[in-house]
Amino acid sequence: MQLFYEEEINGDVFTLDPQESNHLGKVLRKNIGDTVLFTNGKGSLFTCQIEDNNPKKCRLKIVEQLFTPMEKFHIHLAIAPTKNMDRMEWMLEKITEVGFNEITFLKTTHIERSRLKLDRLHKKLVSACKQSFKTWLPEINPIVDYEKFISDPAFHAHERFIAYVDKDNDRHLMQQATIGQSYLVLIGPEGDFSPGEITSAINSGFKPCSLGKHRLRTETAGLVAVHSLNLLNTEN
């Protein structure tokens, strides 16, 4: 069955906004009495029956609610946005399918883009969650200054890594990360981090790591980092 998203589900009965009502009633031609599945993006899966398929205010009744706890590990990806946002949107879709918790965009020295349409990116996350049947919606944060971000004491309890290209940086992320932890991984722009940014991160407690022997594009590196940490926690 398809999975639908509604952030605010309160009580046993709720009404969809006109856009979602039209999608359910007119586009998908759902009828009164049909069963549909909804999530609020906070771990809950609702089995609902349509009480009114009005294309402007579709009303549904919850008949069952299931809750899926979060994984014991937490993945926070901090990445410099690419100039072509289609590539970032592709990455968001894929890492949502694989599984991650939070993303922050970094304003680095070699940044290619400093403005983001967070509403559009949020919609991409919602769409990817629905497609991959995820009941937890990842958190998306605005762009933030690199130095300010890496010095934030809120991340001191995380296992922190910075991935960059260097012939001497050959210890893979999976070799250094510990199972079942909260992870924070920094990914640089196409021009990579500056030497000063790498030094600042290491001095702030980030461990240098590799994502493989080949040079990766920014969005590929983000996907590889998320997949590696999921694989680490799955295999063990």
The poorly predicted ranges are none
The outline comes out as elongated
Radius of gyration: 20 Å
| Helical/strand content category | alpha/beta
Sheet-strand content, in percent, reads 25-35%
- How many E strands? 11
N to C succession of SSEs: EEHEEEEHEHEHEHEHEH
Q: How many alpha or pi helices? A: 7
Fraction of residues in helix: 25-40%
Give the strand order of the largest sheet, numbering strands 1, 2, ... along the chain: 8-7-6-10-9-11
The biggest beta sheet is recorded as: 6 strands, parallel
Report the span from N to C terminus. Answer: 31 Å
Describe this structure in words.
This protein has 236 residues and is α/β, with parallel strands linked by helices. The chain is built from seven helices and eleven strands. Strand 7 (102-107), helix 3 and strand 8 (139-145) form a beta-alpha-beta unit. The radius of gyration is 20 Å and the shape is elongated. The chain starts with a strand and ends with a helix. The mean pLDDT is 93.
